[in-house]
Amino acid sequence: MRNFEYYTPTRIIFGKDTHYQIGDLLKQGNYKKVLIHYGSGSIVRSGLLKEITDSLDTAGVSYVTLGGVVPNPRLSKVYEGIRLCREEQVDFILAAGGGSVIDSSKAIGYGAANPWTDVWNFFLKKKTPTDCLPIGVILTIAASGSEMSSSAVITNEDGWLKRGCVKTDLCRPKFAILNPRLTYTLPQYQTESGCVDILMHTMERYFVNLETMEVTDSISESLMQTVIYNARILMNEPGNYNARAEIMWAGSLSHNGLTGCGTGGGDWACHQLEHELGGQYDVTHGAGLSALWGSWARYVYKENPERFAQFATNVFHIPCGLDFEKTALQGIQAMEDFFRSIQMPTSLHQLGLDLTDSQIHDLAFRCSFEDTRTIGAFMQLNMKDMEKIYHMANADHTNA
Fold this sequence. Notes:
Blueprint: E1 11-14, H1 22-28, E2 33-37, H2 42-45, H3 48-59, E3 62-66, H4 75-88, E4 92-97, H5 99-113, H6 120-123, E5 135-139, E6 153-156, E7 161-164, E8 175-178, H7 188-206, H8 214-236, H9 241-254, H10 269-281, H11 285-300, H12 305-316, H13 324-341, H14 357-367, H15 383-394
Parallel strand pairs: 1-8, 2-3, 2-4, 4-5, 5-8
Antiparallel strand pairs: 6-7
């Protein structure tokens, strides 16, 4: 196992009607002016925004609002938020939404607190932020785990580059309010795509080609089983509170660093491959991940088939004898079967894309930063490897 540090400073307030506490929380923090940042308007239609502003009014906390965050959040909206924070002297950002809203809030927080450079430099990893406006979250989508993480991903419309920020604890939310009832209005596709994202945050850390900690593996395997079980329930019972609660808490645990303790940080190749897909074609993140994962897994599993066999046995209860390779392939098949059972794609064709050779080459060229980097830890992938995986995913695996 590898040495590690584990730090989770975010306060979690979990349960029914917990979002009504927001005014008191901000008043206790002595915050004077809050930016309420949200997405396309669903929190307006559902009444959640009014409940938030009523709570702030009662607590005597001033606020301004900025909506319009889209999936694969845009740099232009971040710039708009930075300007608003400076003009209004905002001292706290409240992200009311899912991962896109939270990531946009983190980027705004970095930009507003570091006027000495363009915030995009933090995503190009040319500069490191020295401060960030404090951030809180009212979570409405269980998926990204950004409510407890130090991560943020933004898409720059100039070139459609989707990049992750330099990771620092400065942007970790001070608190996150997790009320599973706020996820009831989500379309089924978004709910299940979120479940895939949660699974992948655990799987990226799980699939490493080194000796791991048994306790970390057990936590990861249990998390994966919990998400798989409850994702299936939500296909038929979207209003099942307990299933939504399990998924919501699993989402936070999957991306707060817990499942990476002793694993050396994880692989993350699938996320890097999907970032280019999302940046270029604006696909839903979780769906993009499910469309790519099986192809990645079949391309790399021979580096350590025993690890994939362990996954097959401990997550899907597939018996494992001495033939690790056979068991590994059965496990990959079982995961793809699960994706299909929750109506998630397992190929780019099922995602609605039929890419040309030239488009695939361009994705690999971008993902490799113009053939200057490799990705992955389970198996290091160069540009040619990336191109082959995209080609594999471009085939229709419906009958695989």
